[in-house]
Amino acid sequence: MLNNENAWSDWLDFNGETISKIPQSAGVFMMHASMKILFIGGSENIRNSIEDKENEKCISRATRVRYMQTTSYEQKADDLIKDYQDRHDGKLPQCMQNA
Description:
28% of the residues lie in helices and 23% in strands. By secondary structure, the chain is of the alpha+beta class. The chain has a single domain, classed as GIY-YIG endonuclease (3-Layer(aba) Sandwich). Strands 1-4-2-3 form a four-stranded antiparallel β-sheet. Strand 2 and strand 3 form a beta hairpin. The N and C termini lie far apart (30 Å).
């Protein structure tokens, strides 16, 4: 699918088949439904993190996912969340608001 550090994948369908092809490496990811970002996250293993989120009530509504492999996933995730908040009056993505 993708092996460039710091390059986003395409938006992919959020389903088991697609998730199984996401690399088990450090990185960040975003999930959306109806073009609204629901969640932004990062971890040492992006596939496992996405699989863990798959059954959460809010996130289960997601229809698409994209990811970026990066070893600096904590900083990148923080930057992405701050950028989102800057563009949305300080609000977090929908599935992160009550976290």
